[in-house]
Structures are given as structure tokens and as C-alpha cells.
């Protein structure tokens, strides 16, 4: 069966192009990265969310000043729901900065208020290494000269003051926000500082946001191999680390939807090659270690580490596999984790019966379609009515998604894991794989599911 | 005063309008704005209530921002009706659609929506706060929907404001015990505290129906529990239909007494012995702990009406409200705050300023939402979670502070917070 129209979509037939049931020997991908059907109950966010919320927010030592009315700043305060940890918690995530634009600012312009806000924020927190100014919808319309104000403020304060034109209405999803953040950070930050020393084993980890400490599980594996992590982009990142990222010998790219842009720019300008990696599950993590090792000529060390790590967790994974085998999962993630995790589940003998992304592009869907079995549903930018239909009709044993979908799953009696912020992570690499398995076991076998009753008169 | 806001005390208007619409049965909030304006508030509701919420958005993009959002809005309404058949769609504006200048009233009036009502709600994010948004939504609902019909009934309209499902339950139980018929607008007591029973209904059970909102016009009185979040609707109902109107936030003994007196005045009902017993139990709870509560210095941060009522209640507990801080700036709040505290009044100031005040005033106990948790930690104060959002602990939406019974719960929360604080190393 090719493209298909779900029952809940009868009134919006354009959704058919986004909804594919995989069939053998077909070369079809669902339509992606286009404007949402208005009023379809999309779960998507905005460009500001992609820029400030995802890519910039984790940078731990700058003031993130949101230029606009108050809401946008409030949502991303403390990383919002994203759980991207840093080792600077007495500043990073604790404070939220906004110009809180009022009606008269909208009418007469917000440049003065922005300028004063930058200076005051700097005065209150002089130790902050820069001010990132994130522009929101109304600002884009009234036409404040962000770069002019930021330039003046930079001269006055002597620290980096960088505007991000990430108004929510741009683009069709968070995705454009990632791109804007990548471009701006590349233009304004990368290459502005030289490291005190260089080694032949300097590597950046690009596109990991340290969700519940993922990076703190990932980095030691590479460090034990003899590699030095020059910069993490942007989990737990200091802005000066991003400034010296151009000196790395290799970029390891984890999130391949939010950061291919900066990897390409760095390859082009500084000749830094890229290794694409998936750091979830045993097989994919081991492959990533091997790929990096072969670039640096550290194969023996990598094999040693892999052997040791795998030996530690293999018996437990085997035990989990015996419990999970034959279960069916529906994975709905931002984009890459939808395909990262198909293979991870495969290691448990769990079949992905449906996969979806909020803002994936064609390359994401190509990977998903390559990895799922025939008959699996692959759907782009699913809205909440579609999600309810899929959960009700396909009855997966497990749904992996984000907070907005969590309580829908619960109300339908479907075991759930938060794949965006995790339940109790980290979930990356070998040790995280065990955390993940532990959480999957908890939800799959929680006694409470057996207590739910049906009452047709309800 | 600073230009920059550090750690905001308020959220923007649209989330308040959504809050109001979630208490209307089979209603769909339709945000006319960009997708972040629906996705982000949804998460806040999920975190506070532990409930799924459904919000539609017109997904304004670059084209709409240049040429206007009419096409998106018309298509959104059509799609929402075709797929959800709601009783009500509340079209909620944002800073984006208001700055574009879309004439949503005109656009909505051009359509034919069969069985669904479509109400325009103006909530530009650059004016007021979440509280203003709730107030504007409620006013839009009664203005657009209430309809006089003969004969007038003996009902009472209760406008609870941005309180918890548990608060609404407390109010309902008191009114039920007095045998009073009433309309709660809007009623989130079931919609945002829904059971798991399969099959899941298409819309959560409960909430005020559109018919009840229409019938609001025929009630004999209206009481807004939070003047800043529902007061405008009460003023409208009073002005348009001549019904009695009052605003009382029934937190604490005297405020609950006043609320019940007003209910009796408007309906001719009498206070049953069961409520007298409830009052007695609250007094009992307060007497039991007065040696622990008396003399404590309290800082209170909440939405304006809740902050004022809490200040009065902690005074009844023998505490001193040394800081009374409102999420939302308002002249009325400022005036009233002067009568409930001799201490510092923060009128819509941010939480960075609140922290400064807590430090300066040697506060023993802080009342506030989850965003205040770090202040309580840094300044070593006992902490009582209240308001919206609370998401660093579970269950706060289930229980109410209002009424005598809610007062017992709050008294215990306060005392236990003080005890835990005293046990800290």
C-alpha cells in the first residue's frame, strides 16, 4: 500500500502525501518540511524554538536575552522542558531575560528598550561571556534594527552581543531555527579564538545537547581513546569553546537534522571532515567509536574500550531482550532520533510499527523507510488527532514521544517514554542504553496498566 | 526601574485564554499565530495538570505575516469544525496576528459555522499578562454568547479565575451543600483532572456547556472569585442584565465567610450546619498549629487576587505578610495590597526583584509557583507551592485552597513546610 489517508484526515486530504505505509520495492517517501495545514492540531513549534530553544539555549555562559513580549522568554526558561544540563547551574538555566515588549514599544519601536536591557543584563551578570539576542515574531514585523543595536551594545560592553533573527513565523517548523542558529554561530563565533594548545587528536562533538547528561556519558569513551574534545556544540558549551571549534581535526555529528549546516560550513571553510554518528544502542555506539578511531588511527584502543563496555552490559541487555522481544513500538521524535532508535530497539527484538517526525526532511525519512519493516506506518508532522488514531488502531505496546503527547498516551492506556527529555537518563552510549532499557521495562510492565477498566457508557 | 526583565513573574495573554477555554465543554482553543504560540503553552498545561490538552493553531508563516492571516484563519476554522465538531471555537490572537492587524472579528463574522460557535478573543501578548488573557477570554465568552430569555432563573454565576480544579471542586461542594443551582464559568474541575476510563471520550467530560454560558444572562447574580481574572465578565453581566455582582476570593476564614454571606444574600439560601462544621474544622486546624505559624514572616507571590487573599489568610494564622507580590501589575492590586500589608508591595515586578526583597526582608516562608523554588532554596525559606505553574511536585492541581475545607489543606501545607524547614541542617 502506498500513500494513505487516515480516517481522522478525511477533511484534510492533503495529509495523504505525508502518510506512507511501507511496501516492498517502492521508492516512496512521505512529503516533509513543508507548511503545516492550518488548524490541523499540529504538534510543531516555531523557528524561535529551534534557534533559542534547541541550539542556542544550552550554551551555558552567555545571557540569552529574548527580544519580544514576555511569553517566548518564559517558555525557554531553564531550557523549558528540554533537560539540557550544564556544569554552570548557578547561572545557566536559572535566569531568564526578556525585553518584555509593551504596546507602546510595539508602536514606537523597541530599540531603546533592547539597548538598555542588554547593558543592564550585562551589569547584573558581568561574568557572562556574551549576550545573545533572540528576536521574536512581533519584532520581525516592526523592524527593529537588531544588528545596529547589538553592535552599539557590543562596543559599550566589550563582550559579544549577537543578534539571532529567529522570529517564530519564519519557516514551517523548528527546523529553520536550527539553521539560523548554525549560520549565526558560525559567522559570529567560530574561528574567533585560538586554543592555547593543539593536539593531533582534537575533535568536536556537534549536535548533542547533553539531555540529562548524555555528553557526560559520551565524552569519556572518546577521551579514554586518547581524543581531546575541543568543543561540544552545544550541550554544556562555553561560548569560547565554540569560538575555537575551527581548530578541531574532526567533527563528530550526532543530531543530523539540527547541525549539518555548521558541519558543512566548517568543512568548506576550515577543511574539517565530518563523521556522522549514532550514539544510541550497542551496535551504533560501537560503530561510531570505530569510525572515529579509524580516522585518528586509534583502532586498537577503540576495540579495547568496546570490548570492555560491551562485556559490562551484554548480560543485562540479553536479559532485557528476553523480556522485550516481540513488542511493537511507535516512535515519534523531532527527527533523527526516530531513525536512531529504530536500530536501538532492534537490538531488543522490538519492532517499530510506526515512525514519525515533527520536522524531519527527506533524508530523515529515507533513513526511516530503509530501517522499518514492510507494513510500517511512516508519517510526517503528525497532528494530535492522527496520533490518537494511530495509538488507538495500531495499539503499540510502547509509544516514544515528547511531553505534549505523553498524557494522551496515558489516557489511552499506552505505555510511554519521553524521548525528548528522557525519563531518567542519560540514554546515550552503553551505560545510557541500560538506563533506557530500565525505563522501558518500568513502563511496559507497570501493574497500573492492568487496572484500567473499559466502560462503554463513560 | 530596570528595562530588562529577569525571571518573569507573568506569562503572556494567550495562555490565560486557553486556560479559560479548557473549562468549556467540547471547546477548541484556536491560536491565531505562529506554532510556538500553541506548542509551548500546551507543555505548560501538561506539566501543571498532568493532562493532555488540544490546541489548534493557524500556523502563520512568512506569507501570512506579510499579506495577512485571513486565509489561514478561515481554513483553520473550517478544518477544526470538520474534524472535531466542537461546540465552541475560541479564536485567540497573539502578538503576531495583532501586529499584522488581522480583523478577526470581521473574518469570523463572515463565516457560517453550523452547530459550532466561534468567538474572537483578543489577547495581544504585549499587553497585560496571562491573567489579562483569562479575563479577556471570559468577557468575550459572555459578551458573544450570553442571551436573555424568559423567565429568569435562580442560578448563580461563579467565575473562578485561574485557579486549580481542586479549588473549583471546593466551591461546588459548598454550593451543593446549600442546594444552590449555579453555573461555573469556566469549569476546569473535570476537564483538567480527568479519569482514565476507556474508551477515551472525544472531549473530556465536564466543563461548562455553551448552553450554560448562554443562560448566564438569566442568573440572579454573579460572583467573580478573582477580580483580575473574570471581573470584566462580571461587570458586563451586571451592566447588561442588571444582576447582582460581587468579587470575593474565598481563601481563609473571613474571605470564605464573606463569600458565603454574598451567596446567601443573592440567593436567599441559608448556611447549613455542615458548612458551620467545616468552618469549625478549619479553626480547629489553625488553633492546633498556631504556635508554629504565629510570628512567621511570609512573602507571597501569586496572581493579584490570590496574593491578596493569601496575605489575609496568613495574617489569620498569625503570620506577618512582609512581602505581597503580584504576577501582574494593577492599580487595584496596589490599592488593596496597602490594606493587607504594611510590608513591601511588588506590583508586577519580576522574580529577580522578588528574590532581592526576600533577601532584604528576612523572610521565613515563601509562597509561590515552581519558578520560585530556587528563591526559597537560595534564601533558605520554607516554601509553599501555589499558583500556576507548579510542576516540580505532583498533584497540586487536584487540591484547592478555597473554602473552609481548602483552608484546612492549606494550613497543613503551610505547617508542614515550616516543620521541614526547621528540620533542615
Spell out the blueprint of helices and strands.
The complex is a heterodimer of chains A (458) and B (425).
Chain A (H helix, E strand, L loop, with lengths): L18 E3 L25 H10 L6 E5 L2 H7 L20 E2 L4 H6 L2 H14 L5 E6 L1 H6 L3 H12 L2 E5 L10 H14 L13 E7 L5 H12 L2 E7 L4 H5 L6 E4 L6 H11 L3 E3 L5 H15 L2 H26 L3 E6 L2 H11 L4 E7 L4 H10 L5 E4 L3 H11 L3 E4 L1 H9 L4 E3 L10 H16 L14
Parallel strand pairs in A: 2-3, 2-4, 4-5, 6-7, 6-8, 8-9, 10-11, 10-13, 11-12, 13-14
Antiparallel strand pairs in A: 1-12
Chain B lengths: L4 E2 L6 H9 L5 E6 L3 H14 L6 E2 L4 H6 L2 H15 L3 E6 L1 H6 L3 H6 L7 E5 L8 H16 L10 E4 L5 H13 L4 E3 L25 H6 L5 E4 L6 H11 L2 E4 L5 H15 L5 H21 L3 E6 L1 H13 L3 E7 L4 H10 L3 E4 L3 H10 L4 E4 L4 H6 L3 E4 L17 H21 L2
Parallel strand pairs in B: 2-3, 2-4, 4-5, 6-7, 6-8, 8-9, 10-11, 10-13, 11-12, 13-14
Helix pairs in contact in B: 1-7, 7-10, 8-17, 12-17, 13-14
What CATH calls the topology of the largest domain in chain B is Rossmann fold
Instruction: Count helical runs of chain A.
Output: 17
Number of domains of chain B: 3
- Provide mean pLDDT of chain A, rounded: 97
CATH C-level class of the largest domain in chain B: Alpha Beta
Strand portion of chain A, in percent? 5-15%
**Within the CATH hierarchy, at the fold level, what is the topology of the domain at 47-187 in chain A?**
Rossmann fold
Shape of chain B: globular
**Annotation, overall tally of beta strands of chain A:** 14
What is the radius of gyration of chain A? 23 Å
Amino acid at each position: 500500500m502506498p500513500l494513505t489517508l487516515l480516517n481522522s484526515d478525511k477533511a484534510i486530504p492533503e495529509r495523504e502525501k505525508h502518510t506512507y505505509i511501507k511496501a516492498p520495492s517502492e521508492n516512496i517517501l512521505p512529503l516533509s518540511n513543508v507548511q503545516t495545514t492550518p488548524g490541523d492540531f499540529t504538534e510543531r513549534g516555531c523557528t524561535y524554538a529551534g534557534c533559542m530553544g534547541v541550539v542556542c539555549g544550552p550554551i551555558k555562559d552567555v545571557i540569552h536575552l529574548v527580544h519580544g513580549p514576555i511569553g517566548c522568554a518564559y517558555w525557554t526558561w531553564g531550557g523549558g522542558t528540554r533537560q539540557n544540563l550544564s556544569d554552570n547551574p548557578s547561572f545557566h538555566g536559572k535566569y531568564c531575560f526578556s525585553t518584555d515588549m509593551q504596546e507602546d514599544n510595539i508602536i514606537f519601536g523597541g530599540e531603546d528598550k533592547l539597548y538598555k536591557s542588554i547593558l543592564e543584563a550585562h551589569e547584573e551578570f558581568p561574568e557572562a561571556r556574551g549576550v545573545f539576542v533572540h528576536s521574536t515574531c512581533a519584532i520581525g514585523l516592526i523592524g527593529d534594527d537588531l544588528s545596529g543595536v547589538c553592535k552599539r551594545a557590543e562596543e559599550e560592553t566589550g563582550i559579544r552581543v549577537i543578534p539571532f533573527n529567529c522570529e517564530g513565523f519564519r519557516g514551517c517548523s523548528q527546523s529553520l531555527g536550527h539553521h539560523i542558529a548554525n549560520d549565526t554561530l558560525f559567522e559570529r563565533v567560530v574561528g574567533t579564538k585560538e586554543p592555547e594548545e593543539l593536539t593531533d587528536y582534537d575533535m568536536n562533538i556537534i549536535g548533542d545537547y547533553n539531555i540529562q547528561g548524555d555528553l557526560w556519558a559520551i565524552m569519556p569513551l572518546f577521551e579514554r581513546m586518547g581524543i581531546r574534545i575541543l568543543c561540544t556544540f552545544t550541550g554544556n558549551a562555553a561560548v569560547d569553546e565554540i569560538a575555537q571549534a575551527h581548530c578541531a581535526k574532526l567533527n563528530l555529528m550526532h543530531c543530523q537534522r539540527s547541525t549539518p549546516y555548521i558541519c558543512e560550513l566548517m568543512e568548506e571553510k576550515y577543511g574539517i571532515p565530518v563523521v556522522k554518528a549514532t550514539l544510541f544502542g550497542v551496535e551504533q555506539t560501537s560503530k561510531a567509536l570505530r569510525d572515529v578511531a579509524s580516522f585518528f588511527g586509534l583502532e586498537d584502543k577503540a576495540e579495547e574500550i568496546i570490548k570492555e563496555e560491551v562485556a559490562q552490559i551484554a548480560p543485562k541487555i540479553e536479559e532485557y531482550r528476553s523480556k522485550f522481544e516481540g513488542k511493537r513500538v511507535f516512535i515519534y521524535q523531532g527527527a533523527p532520533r526516530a531513525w536512531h532508535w529504530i536500530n536501538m530497539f532492534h537490538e531488543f527484538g522490538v519492532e517499530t510499527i510506526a515512525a514519525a517526525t515533527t520536522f524531519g526532511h527527506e533524508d530523515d525519512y529515507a533513513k526511516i523507510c530503509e530501517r522499518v519493516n514492510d507494513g510500517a506506518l511512516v508519517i510526517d508532522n503528525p497532528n494530535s488527532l492522527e496520533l490518537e488514531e494511530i495509538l488507538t488502531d495500531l495499539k503499540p505496546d510502547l509509544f516514544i514521544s515528547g511531553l505534549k503527547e505523553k498524557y494522551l498516551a496515558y489516557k489511552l492506556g499506552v505505555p510511554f517514554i519521553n524521548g525528548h527529555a528522557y525519563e531518567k537518563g542519560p540514554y546515550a552510549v552503553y551505560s545510557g542504553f541500560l538506563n533506557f532499557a530500565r525505563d522501558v521495562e518500568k513502563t511496559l510492565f507497570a501493574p497500573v496498566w492492568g487496572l484500567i477498566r473499559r466502560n462503554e457508557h463513560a | 526601574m530596570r528595562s530588562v526583565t529577569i525571571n518573569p513573574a507573568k506569562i503572556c495573554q494567550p495562555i490565560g485564554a486557553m486556560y479559560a477555554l479548557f473549562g468549556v465543554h467540547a471547546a477548541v482553543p484556536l491560536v491565531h499565530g505562529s506554532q510556538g504560540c500553541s506548542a509551548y503553552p500546551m507543555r505548560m498545561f501538561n506539566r501543571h495538570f498532568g493532562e493532555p490538552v488540544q490546541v489548534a493553531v493557524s500556523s502563520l508563516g512568512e506569507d501570512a505575516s506579510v499579506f495577512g492571516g485571513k486565509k489561514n484563519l478561515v481554513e483553520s476554522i473550517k478544518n477544526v469544525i470538520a474534524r472535531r465538531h466542537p461546540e465552541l471555537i475560541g479564536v485567540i490572537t497573539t502578538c503576531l496576528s495583532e501586529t499584522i492587524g488581522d480583523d478577526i472579528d470581521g473574518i469570523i463574522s463572515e463565516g457560517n459555522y453550523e452547530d459550532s460557535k466561534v468567538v474572537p478573543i483578543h489577547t495581544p501578548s504585549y499587553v497585560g499578562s496571562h491573567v489579562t488573557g483569562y479575563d479577556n477570554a471570559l468577557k468575550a465568552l459572555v459578551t458573544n454568547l450570553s442571551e436573555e430569555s424568559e423567565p429568569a432563573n435562580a442560578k448563580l454565576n461563579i467565575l473562578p479565575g485561574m485557579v486549580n480544579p481542586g479549588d473549583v471542586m471546593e466551591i461546588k461542594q459548598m454550593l451543593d451543600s446549600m442546594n444552590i443551582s449555579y453555573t461555573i464559568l469556566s469549569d476546569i474541575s473535570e476537564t483538567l483532572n480527568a479519569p482514565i476510563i476507556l474508551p477515551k471520550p472525544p472531549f473530556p467530560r465536564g466543563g461548562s456547556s455553551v448552553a450554560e454560558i448562554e443562560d448566564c444572562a438569566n442568573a440572579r447574580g454573579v460572583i467573580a472569585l478573582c477580580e483580575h481574572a473574570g471581573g470584566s465578565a462580571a461587570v458586563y453581566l451586571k451592566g447588561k442584565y442588571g444582576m447582582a455582582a460581587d468579587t470575593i476570593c474565598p481563601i481563609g476564614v473571613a474571605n470564605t465567610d464573606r463569600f458565603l454571606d454574598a451567596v446567601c444574600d443573592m440567593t436567599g439560601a441559608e448556611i447549613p450546619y455542615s458548612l458551620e462544621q467545616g468552618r469549625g474544622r478549619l479553626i480547629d486546624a489553625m488553633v492546633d498549629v498556631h504556635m508554629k505559624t504565629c510570628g512567621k514572616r511570609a512573602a507571597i507571590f501569586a496572581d493579584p487576587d490570590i496574593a491578596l487573599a493569601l496575605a489575609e489568610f496568613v495574617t489569620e494564622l498569625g503570620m506577618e505578610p512582609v512581602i505581597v507580590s503580584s504576577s501582574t501589575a494593577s492599580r487595584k492590586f496596589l490599592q488593596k495590597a496597602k490594606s493587607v500589608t504594611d510590608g513591601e508591595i511588588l506590583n508586577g515586578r519580576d522574580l529577580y526583584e522578588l528574590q532581592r526583597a526576600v533577601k532584604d526582608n528576612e523572610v521565613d516562608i515563601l509562597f509561590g509557583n515552581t519558578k520560585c523554588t530556587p528563591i526559597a532554596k537560595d534564601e533558605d525559606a520554607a516554601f509553599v507551592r501555589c499558583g500556576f505553574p507548579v510542576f516540580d511536585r505532583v498533584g497540586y492541581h487536584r487540591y484547592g485552597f478555597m473554602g473552609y475545607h481548602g483552608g484546612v489543606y492549606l494550613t497543613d501545607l503551610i505547617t508542614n513546610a515550616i516543620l521541614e524547614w526547621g528540620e533542615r541542617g
